[in-house]
Amino acid sequence: MKQPPNRLREIRARKGISGNRLAEVLGISPQYYYNLEKGNKRLNEDHIRALSAYLNVSANDILGLPGPNEDDLPALDSWKQAPNFGDAILVLVDIQIAHGLPDEWFGKMVKEAKEYFNFEVGAGAPPDLKAAHVSGPAAQGGSGIFDDDEGSGGKGRKRQ
């Protein structure tokens, strides 16, 4: 049964990527890939996510549906233009949501961003971040959020 048309062939050709390469990315045979492209086989959710991430296009763009197109999506490496680690994380969240990427991808990218920005809480942290971690209630041994107040009976009442 023929599936609704998708735009894989058009997107692949525009980006100069072979069908064999996309088959590799998906972990399927080239023949199976070409059947997906022709609509003889059905694209599943995993295929769409992987293709969206690899081609840097939205699922809607692949499926030929209205909605955000590839020009609206942040590039997968755009987090590297962020001025610091915190802003890079915000960009990564936007990328994950826009591309519908799994949490495993996000975790891997956070690790990569830590290395990229040489981010480490403690000795290697920027001075303003180090100060945030050693000042305030935490410096006196508590978290400052659920510390024991007088008369709280040790129940960790939230500080006002």
Summarize the structure.
This protein is 49% helix and 0% strand. The protein has 160 residues and is an all-alpha fold.
Describe the protein's architecture and organization.
- The chain is mainly α and 160 residues long.
- The protein has three domains: 8-72, 434 Repressor (Amino-terminal Domain); 78-116, no CATH class; 127-160, no CATH class.
- The protein has eight helices and no strands.
- It has helices at 8-15, 19-26, 30-38, 45-55, 59-63, 85-99, 103-116, 127-134.
- Helix 6 (85-99) packs antiparallel against helix 7.
- The longest helix has 15 residues, at 85-99.
- The protein is elongated.
- The protein starts with 7 loop residues before the first helix and ends in a 26-residue tail after the last helix.
- The model is unreliable at 129-160 (pLDDT under 50).
Write a concise keyword list for the protein shown above.
160 residues, mainly alpha, 434 Repressor (Amino-terminal Domain), elongated
Q: Mean of residue pLDDT?
A: 74
Order of helices and strands: HHHHHHHH
Distance between the termini: 64 Å
Q: Biggest sheet, in brief?
A: none
Number of domains: 3
The CATH top-level class label of the largest domain: Mainly Alpha
Instruction: From the 3D structure, determine the CATH topology of the largest domain.
Output: 434 Repressor (Amino-terminal Domain)
Approximate strand percentage = under 5%
CATH architectural label of the largest domain: Orthogonal Bundle
Rg result = 23 Å
Task: Choose one word for the global shape.
Answer: elongated
The CATH superfamily of the largest domain is identified as lambda repressor-like DNA-binding domains
Give the tally of β-strands.
0
Estimate the helix proportion, in percent. Answer: 40-55%
Low-confidence stretches: 129-160
The secondary structure category is mainly alpha
